[in-house]
Design goal:
430 residues; alpha/beta; six-stranded parallel β-sheet; four-stranded antiparallel β-sheet
């Protein structure tokens, strides 16, 4: 079974490229329907977050070239638009990569825990669409187990720092006392939940949460003493907020330059702090050109993130060692499963030969033949049939200059090694 991972992330591509290959929830059914047909893969999974899009495929062939063409075509791009931004991992390298992603070692914020939940969601979505078979299921489950070990056996997750935390930390650069500021959070997913928690811990007491469904917005807002609104109500509240942090799955911008301009006129030059964590972006990039607006994207959070990298460097080394061991363990398991399949075939063939010889012996006994003669004939016939094909293949391999096949036969049957004096002479061309 060949395993291929093709991806694009914050290290290989800017936000302008990443947002063009992000998969929205609405398009996931079409993606799963088309992906395996286009590539011929038997199993597939798709991970799409603000910092990465990755495709995991398992099948009989290397489908990487087809995979790039499909990814570009699905998002109405040319393969040349992506070929300098993608990375491809195969087999054991792909296994190790998935484990590094799950443990947060490949994240913008080293060790951030949210990516593990996103990977679990990707696995659940693959199963929901009937795209995850026995191989990917084993890989995901093993990956989650290794990621759990990394969390519990290293300090990689201590004092967790996420993109949400980094966004709130940057707010202190604009506002010295966050308790005096009102926040508008756009979206109501896990990232915004983290943002709300960090803002609350930083002293923000006045929250507005805007979401497509007001019930979800209200539930999140009430947990922090705020109010929930629908997305269409945002313009009515813009002039009264100071901090805007957005993270939705919308394929189109939610907050435009015109709405912000109108709100600024009513604010009398009081500054806005905005962070757009979404991919594709929720806030039009042109908003950054307005005076008194400080707009940041996920790619602008690097300073906070680099400090996090330095503080967790030692734990990262320990985590890498666990992942190397986890990768080797998974590969060994898969190889053992391959051996089990071969052994089943081998046993089935031996049992077929046995049944044929037993049937022949029973006919001889029914015909009145001597039982001892029949028994000896049974043993001789079964032995000959079991040894015939291996003997033919060992002689053939030796004639072709592959003496290791005979060595394997000795190892399989625990035969004593040949005395060097009894070993055949190897003839070499001169």
């Amino acid at each position: 079974m060949a395993l291929i991972t093709l991806g694009i992330n914050h290290r290989t591509a800017p936000l302008e490229i990443r947002e063009r290959v992000a998969f929205t929830p609405e398009r996931m059914p079409d993606a799963f329907r088309e992906l395996r047909v286009a590539t011929g893969a038997s199993e597939a999974a798709i991970l799409s977050t603000c910092n990465r899009t990755e495709l995991y495929l398992a099948g009989d062939d290397d489908c990487a070239p087809t995979l790039l063409r499909w990814l570009a075509g699905f998002h109405e791009l040319a393969p040349a638009d992506l070929e300098n931004s993608i990375y491809i991992h195969r087999d054991s390298d792909a296994v190790r990569h998935m484990m590094r992603v799950a443990a947060g070692l490949d994240s913008m914020v080293l060790g951030e825990p949210q990516i593990l939940g996103q990977l679990k969601d990707a696995y659940a979505l693959s199963r929901e669409h009937g795209a995850s078979g026995s191989f990917l299921s084993r890989l995901f489950e093993h990956t989650f187990s290794v990621a759990k070990r990394v969390r519990t056996e290293t300090a990689i997750g201590e004092n967790p720092v996420s993109v949400a935390y980094a966004a709130v930390s940057m707010a202190h650069h604009i506002f010295s006392d966050l308790s005096r500021n009102r926040a508008l959070l756009i979206g109501a997913g896990k990232t915004i939940e983290l943002v709300a928690r960090h803002l609350s811990e930083a002293g923000v007491k006045d929250f507005i949460v805007a979401n497509r469904t007001v019930e979800r917005a209200q539930a999140l807002a009430e947990a922090h003493g705020g109010q929930g609104i629908v997305l269409s109500d945002i313009p009515d509240y813009l002039k009264d907020v100071d901090i805007i942090i957005s993270s939705t799955a919308s394929p189109l911008p939610i907050l435009g330059k015109g709405a912000v301009e109108r709100a600024l006129k009513k604010r009398k030059h009081r500054p806005y702090f905005m962070v757009d964590i979404a991919v594709p972006r929720d806030i039009e990039p042109e908003v950054a050109r307005l005076d008194d607006v400080y707009l940041y994207s996920v790619d602008d959070l690097r300073q906070v993130i680099e400090e996090n990298l330095r503080s967790r460097a030692g734990a990262a080394k320990e985590a890498e060692n666990l992942i190397i061991a986890g990768t080797q363990d998974f590969i060994s398991q898969i190889r053992a499963l391959d051996a089990v399949s071969t052994l089943k075939q081998y046993r089935a063939r031996a049992e077929t030969l046995r049944d044929l010889e037993v049937a022949k012996a029973l006919r001889a006994l029914n015909n009145g033949n001597d039982p001892e003669t029949v028994l000896r004939s049974l043993a001789r016939g079964l032995t000959n049939k079991l040894l015939h094909e291996p003997s033919v293949q060992v002689r053939k391999a030796s004639a072709e200059g592959r003496p290791e096949v005979a060595d394997w036969l000795r190892e399989l049957h625990q035969l004593e090694a040949l005395d060097p004096q009894d070993a055949p002479t190897t003839l070499e061309k001169t």
